[in-house]
């Protein structure tokens, strides 16, 4: 695909000012930090192209508490530069933090910023911080994007020291793959810096400011793929050495010594992984020159992804376990509870038995007890003999008797059987369906297939976004449901499931009008719900009201979500 010359390119059929608003219950964010945007970025140090002169329009007079579109309340200004400002804000409609870039509608870059934001929003790749709105309103242009508070900028990570080889490998792999996907759609970043790379607590890496950051600053490039590839090389170089690979200091990192030129990371710092060092130099190659004598330069993110794939995979370091402290020995011994612990080195006296009965009264009592025992033994022997005689006389009769069919002591409990599911439909109480086409995956006897919920921004309770989500199952005819076993894809704190008896696959009543069979909560990957009352029903609603926070995977970003792999009813 031919490279585009600018970062801000409009998408055909998407002109106009219609906002692109993300849904509250489905986003591709994977939970990484959104920290302040820096005013100290050095574009010349990155070598990412020139910057147009700022627009003549003055920054809009905005303040904390100001609302945009009657929903985005500005909280804190984090950047004010070149006629635009960036804010941390709150989306009062969806009750979540967001970031907002604002500039006057007559700013020289307003059109390109809108076009870049809309193009980025259409990509929808979860590896990028998502654009949620791009609007022109009341002489202002503003771009709303995700604000992700649970991870860290690469800038902050490098302030503490270079990354471990495995972390650097994961960073360059994920960022290069993300940028290759963006360039396949004709989108470039042109301003990849340590401040635009974010790592989540789960180890996932995200890119923010795709196309938009460059458009805000008027950055363009005749070779956008080469520009982004060299920027990724600079990020890898900095991750390995804690140095910026140019002579100028930038992003809190010291540059290379003046006059030395570009030297390989493993020559800057001892212990750098040789393969990653060569990879950084291949991506940073200027005019085709590279520190490696054996490999060619990488000039596009796609070539960089291929080069990473050809490297031996760098595994994480082995965890270091420390032996637990020895358990303190106790002086407890069987049968010694309540006794004084013996002192070491001292001979212990033997226990003295109680003295026998030696008095006249004691002797008389002893003979009386003996006489009573003899009498009891005689009486018992006589009764035993009498019982044996009676039993011998009635053997024939008892052998011909059969148990009473109505004797409850001989009843056998009915066996528990698995109830066959004849069909299922997703139940939608409000809003959109979750994954209506996948409900059959929950009873196909294949634990690798599943029906999943969308990703929610808050939890574990789904309300107020939704009262709950679930599936109605058809058992073929009215049957008594004793329990249900449910396989879950995600564990964590916590999943709550209710079972309700309902009237059809498409119930005519709300959940409040149904009869509850049982409920249960788990933090694991399986759940058993036992019936709290005896009910017969043909249709059972499996209703989920709480879901755990789960990491990003190949299906959705990090957030509150759940997926059902297997459902079995017993009765």
Q: What does this entry show, briefly?
A:
The protein is an alpha+beta fold. The chain contains eleven helices and 23 strands. A hairpin with a 4-residue loop joins β8 (197-200) and β9.
Using only C-alpha atoms, the radius of gyration works out to 37 Å
CATH superfamily of the domain at 151-310: Transferase(Phosphotransferase) domain 1
User: What is the oligomeric state here?
Assistant: single chain
Number of E-type strands: 23
- Largest sheet, strands/sense/barrel: 6 strands, antiparallel
Give the strand order of the largest sheet, numbering strands 1, 2, ... along the chain: 1-2-3-4-6-5
What's the CATH class label of the domain at 151-310? Mainly Alpha
* CATH architecture tag of the domain at 151-310: Orthogonal Bundle
Helical amount: 10-25%
| Count of alpha and pi helical runs | 11
Question: What amount of the residues lies in strands?
Answer: 15-25%
pLDDT averaged residue by residue: 79
Structural class: alpha+beta
| CATH topology grouping of the domain at 151-310 | Transferase(Phosphotransferase), domain 1
How far is it from the N-terminal to the C-terminal residue, by CA?
Answer: 60 Å
Give the overall shape.
elongated
Low-confidence stretches: 1-57, 288-292, 327-339, 396-411
């Amino acid at each position: 695909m031919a490279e585009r010359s600018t970062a801000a390119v409009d998408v055909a059929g998407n002109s106009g000012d219609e906002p692109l608003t993300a849904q509250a219950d489905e986003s591709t964010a994977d939970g990484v930090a959104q920290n302040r945007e820096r005013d100290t970025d050095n574009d010349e140090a990155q070598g990412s192209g020139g910057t147009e002169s700022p627009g003549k329009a003055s920054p809009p007079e905005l303040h904390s508490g100001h609302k945009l579109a009657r929903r985005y309340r500005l909280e804190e200004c984090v950047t004010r530069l070149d006629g635009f400002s960036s804010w941390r804000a709150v989306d009062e409609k969806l009750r979540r933090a967001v970031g907002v870039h604002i500039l006057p509608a007559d700013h020289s870059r307003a059109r390109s910023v809108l076009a870049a934001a809309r193009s980025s929003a259409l990509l929808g790749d979860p590896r990028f911080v998502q654009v949620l709105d791009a609007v022109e309103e009341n002489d202002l242009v503003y771009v709303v994007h995700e604000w992700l508070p649970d991870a860290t900028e690469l800038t902050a990570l490098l302030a503490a020291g270079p990354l471990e080889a495995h972390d650097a490998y994961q960073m360059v792999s994920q960022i290069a793959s993300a940028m290759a996907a963006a360039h396949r759609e004709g989108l470039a970043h042109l301003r990849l810096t340590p401040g635009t790379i974010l790592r989540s607590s789960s180890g996932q890496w995200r890119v923010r400011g795709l196309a938009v950051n460059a458009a805000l600053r008027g950055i363009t490039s005749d070779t956008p793929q080469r520009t982004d590839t060299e920027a990724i090389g600079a990020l890898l170089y900095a991750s390995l050495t804690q140095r910026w690979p140019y002579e100028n200091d930038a992003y809190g990192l010291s540059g290379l010594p003046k006059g030395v030129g570009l030297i390989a990371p493993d020559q800057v710092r001892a212990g750098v992984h040789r393969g990653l060092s060569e990879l950084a130099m291949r991506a940073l190659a200027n005019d085709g020159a590279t520190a490696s004598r054996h490999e060619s330069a990488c000039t596009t993110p796609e070539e960089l992804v291929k080069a990473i794939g050809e490297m031996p995979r760098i595994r994480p370091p082995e965890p270091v376990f420390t032996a637990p402290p020895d358990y303190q020995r106790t002086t407890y011994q069987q049968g010694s509870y309540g006794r004084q612990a013996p002192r070491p080195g001292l001979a212990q006296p033997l226990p003295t038995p109680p003295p026998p009965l030696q008095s006249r009264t004691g002797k008389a009592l002893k003979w009386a007890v003996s006489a009573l025992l003899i009498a009891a033994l005689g009486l018992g022997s006589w009764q035993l003999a009498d019982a044996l005689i009676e039993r011998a006389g009635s053997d024939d009769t008892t052998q011909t008797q059969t148990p009473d069919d109505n004797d409850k002591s001989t009843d056998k409990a009915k066996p528990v059987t698995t109830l066959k599911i004849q069909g299922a439909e997703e139940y939608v109480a409000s809003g959109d369906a979750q994954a209506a086409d996948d409900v059959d995956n929950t009873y196909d006897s294949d634990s690798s297939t599943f029906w999943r919920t969308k990703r929610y921004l808050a939890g574990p309770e789904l309300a107020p976004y939704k009262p709950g989500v679930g599936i109605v199952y058809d058992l073929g005819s009215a049957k008594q449901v004793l329990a249900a076993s449910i396989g879950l894809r995600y564990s964590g704190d916590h999943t709550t499931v209710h079972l309700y008896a309902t009237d059809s696959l498409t119930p005519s009543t709300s959940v409040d009008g149904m009869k509850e069979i049982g409920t249960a909560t788990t933090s694991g990957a399986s759940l058993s719900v036992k019936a709290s009352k005896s009910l017969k029903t043909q249709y059972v609603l499996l209703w989920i009201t709480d879901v755990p926070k789960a990491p990003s995977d190949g299906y959705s970003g990090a957030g509150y979500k759940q997926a059902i792999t297997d459902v079995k009813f017993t009765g």
